[in-house]
Design brief:
Blueprint: H1 19-25, E1 30-31, H2 43-55, H3 65-79, E2 88-91, H4 94-105, E3 111-116, H5 120-127, E4 132-137, E5 139-141, E6 144-146, E7 160-166, H6 178-190, E8 194-198, E9 224-228, E10 242-245, H7 249-261, H8 271-281, H9 283-307, E11 312-314, E12 321-325, H10 333-344, E13 346-347, E14 349-350, E15 361-365, H11 370-386
Parallel strand pairs: 1-13, 3-4, 3-7, 7-8, 8-9
Antiparallel strand pairs: 2-10, 5-6, 9-10, 11-12, 12-15, 14-15
Helix pairs in contact: 2-8, 3-8, 4-5, 4-7, 9-11, 10-11
Length: 387
């Protein structure tokens, strides 16, 4: 796994993570906010992309039988779920798919449930489409976030249409158990809600935890839309590709028409081929990344405990993102962000980025060389001592 230790200069590559941060911060800082990896993608994916470039013709593409079979095989071997080819539908990215579904399967003012703190795009697709956001906060208890639907009954009505499920959860790193998912499914069945599941981090789960696709639960199959992608798993988010997996034929036909009206037909020139390569040949790479990221997490946890005990790591079960509680520092988010950028030379996402229930926390990307995590911790430790 030594290749993950390599520091790769991403400046001057139109990189949203590093070039974008340089523009926002006005200088070069350690960038651990945006959720993509600082690792090269697997060689099998790079080889396929080189082959496409060398061919030199970038025409319209289709999804072949090999594409669908690669997705089917992946879900069987990694998630123990048998899916059918007709369930799989291409969408450019998870955010586009969720937004189009909300625009067309609900009306303005309809209620949509979202567990908070939440990835901002999931909030945006509700609010920007002028739907009623119904927050269902996760409850932090004894250092772990818990599902709590107890007060949700009082907040919904007949105009509530969709339950957005983010699992594994961004930003907290929770991987919901079968019992928790069953509770959500029962609630949604009772209130005739569609489950719109963002499962983009589904492959990024630490053992012994296990991701359970919500639609693999029998009672959920007829009410679920799963949004998934290779992009987080194999670090290819710039390619812009994802799949919707929809077992229910009626919902599937409705979504198919929505995508057709939006003129979403042909995938990106690289999308089909790299999906096949990723799912057929790159298990080993994912396993190595998970091991490397987990070791970064353990290092972070132990360093904070020993040197900065006022920063408490919420022990994640999945994703390559860490969620850290800084409330014991007794500083505002604005003040801490300023200290981090101006004094420590690091940039992370402040919890407010994920809504009011994220205040008092920061999100740090662990999918980066360990030396970056070491530098990050040393810099913030020295900065907080000087404060």
């Amino acid at each position: 796994m030594k290749e993950f230790d390599e520091i790769i200069n991403r400046y001057e590559t139109n990189c949203a993570k590093w070039d974008g941060c340089r523009e926002i911060c006005g200088k070069d800082v350690m960038q651990l906010a945006v959720a993509d990896m600082d690792f090269r993608s697997p060689k099998e994916i790079l080889n396929v992309m080189h082959k496409i470039v060398e061919h030199g013709i970038f025409g319209y593409t289709i999804l072949s039988k090999k594409y669908y079979q690669s997705v089917i095989n992946w879900y069987k071997k990694r998630h123990n779920w048998n899916i059918s080819e007709e369930w799989i539908m291409y969408s450019p990215r998870v955010g586009i798919g969720t937004s189009l579904i909300i625009q067309n399967m609900t009306k303005k003012g309809d209620g949509i449930i979202l567990q908070t703190p939440a990835y901002p795009t999931l909030r945006d697709v509700v609010v920007k489409n002028k739907r009623n956001l119904i927050e269902n906060p996760l409850i932090l208890k004894n250092g772990k976030y818990k599902l709590d639907l107890s007060n949700l009954e009082k907040q919904i009505d007949k105009n509530t249409k969709i339950f957005i499920l983010c699992n594994p959860h961004n930003p907290t790193g929770r991987v919901f158990t079968l019992d928790e998912l069953q509770e959500i499914v029962n609630f949604c069945k009772k209130h005739n809600l569609i489950i719109l599941a963002d499962e983009i981090h589904s492959d990024l789960v630490f053992k012994p935890n296990k991701h359970i696709p919500v639609a693999s639960i029998r009672e959920a199959q007829e009410i679920s839309i799963i949004c998934t992608s290779i992009t987080k798993t194999f670090n290819v988010p710039g390619v812009i590709t994802s799949n919707l997996i929809i077992p229910n034929e009626k919902i599937r036909n409705e979504v198919k028409e929505i995508l057709d009206v939006a003129v979403i037909h042909n995938p990106n020139i690289f999308a089909a081929a790299i999906t096949e390569a990723a799912y057929n040949e790159c298990d080993y790479w994912l396993d190595e990344v998970l091991e490397y990221v987990h070791s970064n997490k353990i290092y972070l946890k132990e360093y904070l405990k020993k040197h900065i005990p006022k920063l408490k790591l919420i022990d994640s079960e999945g994703t390559y993102l860490s969620w850290i509680d800084y409330r014991d520092l007794k500083v505002s988010g604005e003040e801490l962000k300023k200290l981090f950028i101006e004094k420590a030379g690091v940039n992370v996402y402040m919890g407010e980025h994920f809504g009011d229930s994220g205040k008092g926390f920061i999100r740090v990307n662990l999918a980066t060389p360990k030396s970056n995590i070491e530098k990050f911790l040393i810099n913030i430790n020295e900065t907080l001592k000087e404060k």
